[in-house]
Amino acid sequence: MTAYNTLFKCIFLACFVLLTYLLLIEMAPAPHASLYKDKLQHIVAFGGVAFWGVWAFANYQRWVLVGLILFGGLMEVLQGLLTVTRQPSVFDWLADIVGILLAWWLAAILKRWWKTRSGRI
């Protein structure tokens, strides 16, 4: 699995930069009917970054998870401070956390499967 570390780190970095950009660009407020889509987008976006972060930094998983949770909170604060059309939301941050934890769980299952498949358990 270490042969893929550089690839995983590059994917993680690209996803992290893209997520940061998307969270801080100006956007028109979403209509009330599409609020569930916004939360789903937060879950998927932060889940994707967390998934690659857990694979890229396997020895530092807890730090990656804690860092992404704090990053999600920081992005919500910065949305309120740096953008005109976006508002910070505790519920968006909670959706970020759900995505991060789901990705961590999925990565753990896949790692266990991979080790079992390759005969390392």
TrEMBL record:
Transmembrane spans: 7-28, 40-58, 65-84, 90-110
The species this protein was found in: Methylophilus aquaticus
PANTHER family: DOMAIN PROTEIN, PUTATIVE (AFU_ORTHOLOGUE AFUA_3G10980)-RELATED
Protein name (database record): VanZ family protein
Keywords recorded for this protein, A-Z: Membrane, Transmembrane, Transmembrane helix
Domain of life: Bacteria
NCBIfam families: vanZ_1
